[in-house]
Amino acid sequence: MNFNVIGIGEALWDLLPAGRQIGGAPANFSFHAKMLGAQAQLITRVGRDDLGKAILQRVVEMGMDVDAVQLDDLAPTGTASVALHNGGVPHFIIQDNVAWDQLTLTENARAAVRKADALCFGTLAQRNPTSRAAVRSLVASARPDALKIFDINLRQNFFSLEIVQASLELANVLKLNDDELLALARLFGLRGGPEEQIAELARRFHLKLVALTCGARGSLFYSHDRYSKMEGLPATVVDTVGAGDAFTAMLALGLLAGWDLDRINCCANKVAAYVVSQPGATPRLPEHLRLTEAFH
Asked: Which is the CATH superfamily of the domain at 4-281?
């Protein structure tokens, strides 16, 4: 499988009760895409500190290129304190004024985006004007046929109507969870139930697909007047950190491979169900979930 996919934005350390784990939605997306068999890359910025060196080491260990990982001489590598609530659901307290807030346009980043078949970005790395400008410029410069996946990832108060609307206008695929759909319903005055609301988002922002995840209750896709609904799969939940990012990685690869919506939905749920059964955001995927052969 020769699909080139890129996560753009934050890479950080999740400070979980059981210990430190690498995190950040774009980083998780890229790592999962790599484990699933894609050519994956990460565009981010880390501090020139021990935590930053550890992220670079993890990227190398994954067999990924580090050319688009920027180093900051002043700002520290990001962290997020994570408390697990009932059912392993994480609550994040995310450090501010960190290296990925200073993400800038570089020629390495531009070159990577020009080759990308799919990009994934969210709101968190747009909380600072510097990184916001870089993220938007990179997404806007993608090839016309590339997937531009907006994994909305609302965190704390680090988003606004302007950030969400501008990102939707840049994207051609939206992935969100049920809590985030409630927030968008308020922001955009969406009416009806989830099916009507995601269809309205697709029509209003000319999206190829909207993917709604609902935790243990499964997921719902809408694309060109067609729905795909998948019930949740049984899993023994350790924590849900990173499960949505694994879902998005499988979604991206299934779309690039031209799979039917139901097949993508089923495979994305399988990958996410495995991730929630393991600690941390990016556990090593077992062979039966590494779908490289299925893409040939």
From this structure: Ribokinase (3.40.1190.20)
